Amino acid sequence: MDPTSSPDWRSPEAIQKWWYTPSQRDIKRDYPPSTVIALRDGLFEAHNRPANKLRGIFARHQQCKSVHLVPSVIEPVSLQMISEVGFETAYVSGGMASMTDTATNDPTTDLSDYTYDTVPNKVASLYRSQLLHYRTAMARGDTDRAEASIVPLIADGDSGAGLHTTVMKLTKLFVQSGVAGFHLDDLLSGAKRFDGHDGVGYVVVPLSEHVRRLKAAKLQLDVMGAETVLIHRTDAMSATHITSTIDPRDTPFILGATVNMPTDLCEVESGPLRAQWKIDAKLATLEEAFASACPDLVATLKTRIAGLNVSRALRVAQELYPDFFWSAESPRTAQGWYAFKGGIDCAISRSLVCAPLVDMTWACVGSYDPKGAAQIAAAVQEAYPGKWMAYNITGGFPDDGSRDDEVKALPESLASLGYVWQFLPIAGLTAVAVGVRSVGLEIKKGGLLGYLQSASRPAGRTGHPSAEWWWKDMARLTDMAADAIGEGL
Ligand SMILES: C[C@](O)(C(=O)O)[C@H](CC(=O)O)C(=O)O
Ligand SMILES: [Mg+2]
Questions:
Q1: For the chain, what is the domain count?
Q2: Phi, psi (deg, nearest 5) at residue 259
Q3: Could you identify the atom of ligand 1 that is nearest to the CA of residue 91?
Q4: 374 and 396, same structural domain?
Q5: Can you tell me which residues bind Mg(2+) (predicted)?
Q6: What's the CA-to-centroid distance between 385 and ligand 2, angstroms?
Q7: pLDDT-derived band of residue 110, with 50, 70 and 90 as boundaries?
Q8: What's the pTM?
Q9: Which one of 191, 205, 413, 414 is CB 3.0 to 4.6 Å from 209, fit for a cystine?
Q10: What is the rounded CA–CA span in Å between residue 93 and residue 74?
Q11: d(CA 93, ligand 1 centre) in Å
């Protein structure tokens, strides 16, 4: 039955009851059901089956203390292969989408500067390909295969593409696309530098802005009656800058100059002068700077600045010790960004604020750090026992010098820390590259026979996308439709 035709669709009591169900009861909401009702459409568009399936998969892994390790997928054929070899979920990467499918067709680096329908469109085509595989498996009477074709997709929502209205539109597109879960991060879109030039790496937004992204997404999910899994991602671990100092929760991580420099950073030329400026300015957080300037009063400072943003905290510090110098303004970049001390403490602090707003937390890492993974897990699990957690294995890793036995044991060790989902964001692209290259080389070497031996016959033996599936299973459904429509006479 269409949920929108039920009186529950517009009943505050029914929404409240839904919010008490196991999938919803741990989410903190600050808005009443009446807001949700006011924003509701008269159409039901959520694909809750994959979302609920995903919830079941995570719950099972949590119960078994295992972690679900999955690759990403970049197109429908890979997705089907992923499902056939037994993966239960798949990741749809923004970075990989930006290299393969953007509205302008220009492959680019991973900057989330593509139009915000890019990843939802990718998800939609993958999801709809699953439905085709579901139909053909059912036509063969293979109900298990049909069910296994529905692989819940977890997608990259990047930074939400804008302020709250855009986040809500993006969320709506994701829900319409058939996504089972998606993540939103705390980055400033398009601002990454990959070479660390001038000390700029990842730029984060204030925690309050990230919280607004997550709340906007959850509100939209509520509006649509969607069970979609919402994932918080923080890039705090790699953050070097922040766009604003307004949020008191960011105070411990804002860096300032402890030396009163004759120029501000943005006034000096790029290059060596700029690098030297940073060395001379001796950057430190306000508390670190105060601890070395006036160690006796640091305990008092800590109590007095709790809950204050840096501009208020600086005033307090200068009341306590009038000679104290510290400036968050002078190290600002030409773009106006503030210097920021990213790292594990910041990732933990952000994860703890966001955990109650979402189903899963993820602190994005550039390489595997067992100690860091354990610290984050311990902090999140202590505050929110049973909160689902994700871990990514990105970049060059695991070919980073780790021993093979360490790499092999990694999923198990993550599982023991409480992680339930571990994913390989660029594996989909790498797998296509390796597969196509190896078949291509066989064709070059062996001609037609090379193709038969390396591609066509193995595909025929393993099922899709074999000629049999193409010409028989799928064609049978098309022919059935033609028969049903008849000759038009
Ligand atoms: C996970 C990620 O967001 C992605 O788009 O796949 C990227 C991956 C990468 O850049 O290697 C990320 O980690 O930011
Ligand atoms: Mg991404």
A1: 3
A2: -115, 135
A3: 6
A4: yes
A5: 156
A6: 27
A7: confident
A8: 0.96
A9: 205
A10: 8
A11: 7
Place of tokens 């600086």: 314
**422 pocket-lining for ligand 1 (C-beta < 6 Å):** no
Residues 175 and 91 in one domain: yes
Residue 451 has pLDDT above 90, yes or no: yes
Structure tokens at 416: 């023991």
Instruction: Find the mean pLDDT for residues 168-196.
Output: 93
DSSP notation for 333-400: -TT-PEEB--SHHHHHHHHHHHGGGSSEEEE--SS--HHHHHHHHHHHHHHSTT-EEEEE--TTTTSS
The full length of the chain comes to 489
CB 348 within 8 A of CB 249: no
Is 243 close to ligand 1, i.e. is its CB under 6 Å away?
no
Looking at the structure, tell me whether residues 165 and 310 fall in a common domain: no
Q: CA-to-CA distance for 344 and 250, rounded, in angstroms?
A: 14
List the domain range (segments joined by +) for residue 480.
431-485
Residues around the ion ligand 2 (C-beta < 5 A) = 94-95, 156
The pLDDT tens digits for 37-73 are 999 998 999 999 999 999 999 999 999 999 999 999 9
Give yes or no: residues 89 and 168 share one domain: yes
Residue 351 lies in a domain: no
